[in-house]
Specification:
This protein is α+β, with helices and mostly antiparallel strands. 24% of the residues lie in helices and 25% in strands. The chain is globular. The termini are close together.
């Protein structure tokens, strides 16, 4: 069994003070993918920088206090790669991948964007570069008899079932038609060829949501977005047995505005 968890920690130093550390001590995950770490490696407290029992790779952003992704694995990876061959984005703390026996696992923090701003332009450039990489990664892995799992905060809700208030968000970044079409390409057999594992296991439900705004009563009303995904090649996706969101019991016990998304895969 391989259990993988992904979570946007919304600043790892802050999360460590709010409950991430005891959560980490109790998790049954074999692999943990973190996004929005927002710290240089040396700035992280030891208990999250290099916790006992884990092999850790941190890929901070060149721009201080932004982005940053990390991978925690119980087993030492055979290889680790930061970035995806992009001149613009490889130093931006957006992507890191590791080779484990039979599978390449990656942590992704896709830009969030904001309509009408440079941030949305940046997001569009990222999407344009990243899809060909995903396609190539799948092809290379298949040639080596390996599977691929790209986990993380993709910052796009794919379908109406993936966010509570979809009607009010049709012109906002994260639910734009062109973004949703891009994600469809990721899931297309002729392009990306990946499977949305959580949706495959929960095909007829709204959510399960993984992000709730800190504003208003979004968390209490479960007015969330499902933007944290496990995107797997078909062989690995077919071995997924259960998927769930580790939603906090109450607003005041959250250590991030996202919740961990966990999937168990048969070995």
């Amino acid at each position: 069994m391989l259990t993988v968890t992904t979570v946007n920690v919304n600043g790892l130093r802050a999360a460590a003070k709010k409950g991430f550390v005891p959560w980490l001590a109790e998790t049954a995950a074999d692999v943990l993918c973190l996004q929005e770490v927002r710290a240089e490696t040396a700035q992280l407290p030891a208990e999250v920088r290099e916790p006992e029992g884990w092999h850790v790779v941190h890929a901070p952003a060149e721009a201080k206090g932004r982005a940053g992704v990390s991978l925690y694995t119980r087993r030492e990876p055979d290889a680790v790669r930061v970035g995806f061959g992009s001149t613009e984005f490889d130093a931006s703390g957006r992507y890191v991948e590791a080779d484990l026996p039979g599978v390449t696992v990656a942590s992704l923090y896709l830009p969030s964007g904001e309509v009408g701003t440079e941030r949305q332009d940046e997001k569009e450039r990222f999407l344009k570069e990243f899809l060909p990489y995903l396609t190539g990664l799948r092809a290379r892995a298949a040639a080596d008899g390996r599977e691929v799992l790209v986990c993380g905060d993709w910052n796009i809700a794919h379908q109406e079932a993936d966010l509570k208030n979809w009607k009010a968000n049709q012109k906002k970044s994260g639910f734009l038609p062109e973004e949703r079409a891009w994600l469809t390409e990721v899931l297309s057999g002729t392009s990306g060829g990946y499977v949305d594992v959580v949706r495959a296991l929960h095909p007829d439900t709204d959510g399960p949501y993984s992000w709730w705004s800190y504003r208003g009563r979004a968390f209490d009303n479960d007015a969330g977005w499902r933007i944290d995904y496990h995107m797997a090649t078909s062989g690995l996706a077919s071995r997924a047995t259960k998927a769930f969101v580790e939603r906090a019991e109450s607003y005041d016990t959250r250590w991030s505005d996202h919740a961990p998304v966990t999937v168990a895969y048969e070995g």
